[in-house]
């Protein structure tokens, strides 16, 4: 495979000249996996041969619009028919396929009426809005995942079927990293082979629990890295008959799993970091961004917490805050500000679980930050450690469940101004449909508690 096959400018010229098929053949590429993101952040793809890929690159592509209403149970939550909608290949989204030789991965985006419903579109819009303020954003991600044995009754959902691998694992365990170096090293290699820039991996809180952190890159590409990184992780362990999950709260006997973006801002003109002053104090830009995020978090939370299960992390025993607080270096706050050095200064949102859609979460953070910057907002007082920022009177309380979060989002005038009324209505309706679908479920714990006693 030659590097030029992933070069956006080379691809654009080849497409304009009708030479994509020839270019792929010269580069040794036999297949192109072309994917779109649905509103929940799940990648939906088709594997194309060279001829089909050439048509998609040169003439445009199409995909069924039903994925805009697709649920995790492979059911559509709206009534009515579906049809093909036009989509275009993002030439700059290419990366190597870590699981198939002579194969590459690209992303496409809907055009026309479906475009604004796309998570990638919303990231692009917020990036452009930030640029209008003379700023660019780089982002990195930290995801926790739980690796389970593939027991015969795992898909039943019963807690007794949950058997984590590496049962002796503990948080930041050097023993786990040594004992299981081959498995962990293979995971990192798969991520790197898929062009996901790994900053670090480490053992996390309890059996089977790990953390993956990506390096900082421009925010849109970082969101792509996160989406593919989650998929590659699941695929890597599935190929070893294991199950890696990013479910926010697997069971009451397991830790909540976090998915935290960290963002840094620079001047678009010269790349100078802008979050701190030369004396180490927070800049006006940083304070306005912090104010925007903490002010809007209660009404935009659903963009970062998309499932009923997401809200089970916000409770005793977990590190997830339930109020919109901020603090310098304070891990217990919703927004942790790192300001020890201008080059590494960043804002870490510690609210989302690992189930978050990286693109919608990124759009939410950038939208709230730029709203604060545009309006010159000033944040409330920070929560300084050792004070606990998880449930603090200084922070506005966050929605307690998915329905409340979706309702607050649908009623938010700021959300409509940032993301568009059509997207807000569509996304809120999808989250309410998901919440209502889950109301039908009856857990084993409920049966145990009420079967004989109700």
Describe the structure.
By secondary structure, this protein is an alpha+beta fold. It is 34% helix and 20% strand. The protein has helices at residues 8-16, 20-26, 50-59, 119-132, 174-179, 181-193, 219-238, 284-300, 358-374, 402-410, 413-419, 421-438, 444-450, and strands at residues 31-37, 43-49, 61-64, 84-89, 95-96, 103-110, 135-149, 198-203, 209-214, 217-218, 242-245, 259-267, 323-324, 326-328, 335-338, 346-349, 396-397. The strands form three sheets. Strands 7, 8, 9, 10, 11, 12, 14, 15 and 16 form a nine-stranded mixed sheet that branches. A hairpin with a 5-residue loop joins strand 1 and strand 2 (43-49). Helix 1 (8-16) crosses helix 3 (50-59) and helix 4 packs parallel to helix 9. The termini are far apart.
Throw out a few tags for this protein.
9-stranded mixed sheet, 20% strand, alpha+beta, 454 residues, single chain
């Amino acid at each position: 495979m030659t590097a030029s096959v992933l070069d956006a400018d080379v691809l654009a010229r080849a497409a304009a000249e009708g030479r994509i098929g020839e270019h792929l053949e010269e580069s040794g590429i036999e297949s192109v996996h072309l994917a779109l993101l649905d509103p929940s952040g799940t990648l939906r793809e088709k594997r194309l041969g060279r001829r089909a890929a050439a048509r998609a690159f040169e003439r445009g592509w199409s995909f069924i619009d039903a994925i805009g209403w697709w649920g995790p149970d492979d059911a559509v939550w709206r009534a009515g028919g579906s049809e093909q909608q036009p989509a275009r290949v993002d030439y700059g989204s290419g990366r190597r396929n870590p699981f198939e030789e002579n194969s590459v991965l690209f992303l496409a985006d809907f055009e026309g009426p479906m475009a604004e419903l796309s998570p990638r579109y919303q990231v692009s819009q917020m990036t452009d809005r930030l640029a209008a303020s003379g700023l660019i954003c780089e982002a990195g991600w930290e995801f926790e995942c739980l690796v389970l044995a593939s027991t015969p009754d795992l898909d039943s959902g019963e807690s007794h079927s949950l058997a984590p691998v590496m049962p002796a694992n503990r948080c930041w365990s050097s023993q786990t990293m040594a004992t299981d170096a081959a498995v962990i090293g293979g995971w990192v290699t798969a991520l790197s082979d898929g062009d996901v820039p790994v900053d670090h991996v480490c053992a996390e809180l309890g059996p089977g629990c790990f953390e993956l952190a990506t390096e900082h890159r421009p925010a849109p590409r970082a969101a792509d890295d996160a989406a593919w990184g989650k998929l590659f992780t699941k695929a890597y362990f599935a190929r070893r008959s294991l199950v890696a999950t990013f479910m926010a709260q697997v069971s009451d006997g397991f830790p909540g799993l976090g998915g935290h973006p960290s963002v840094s801002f620079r001047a678009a003109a010269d790349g100078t970091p802008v979050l701190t002053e030369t004396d180490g104090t927070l800049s006006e830009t940083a304070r306005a961004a912090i104010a925007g995020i903490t002010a809007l978090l209660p009404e935009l939370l659903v963009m970062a917490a998309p499932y009923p299960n997401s809200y089970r992390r916000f409770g005793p025993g977990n590190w997830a805050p339930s109020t919109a607080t901020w603090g310098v270096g304070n891990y217990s706050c919703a927004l942790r500000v790192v300001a020890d050095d201008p080059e590494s200064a960043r804002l870490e949102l510690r609210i989302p679980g690992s189930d978050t859609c990286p693109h919608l979460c990124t759009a939410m953070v950038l939208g709230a930050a730029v709203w604060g910057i545009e309006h010159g907002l000033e944040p409330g007082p920070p929560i300084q450690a050792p004070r606990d920022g998880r449930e603090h009177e200084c922070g506005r309380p966050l929605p307690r469940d998915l329905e409340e979060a979706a309702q607050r989002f649908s009623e938010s005038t700021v959300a409509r101004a940032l993301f568009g009324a059509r997207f807000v209505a569509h996304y809120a309706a999808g989250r309410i449909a998901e919440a209502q679908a889950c109301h039908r479920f009856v857990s084993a714990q409920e049966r145990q508690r009420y079967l004989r006693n109700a």
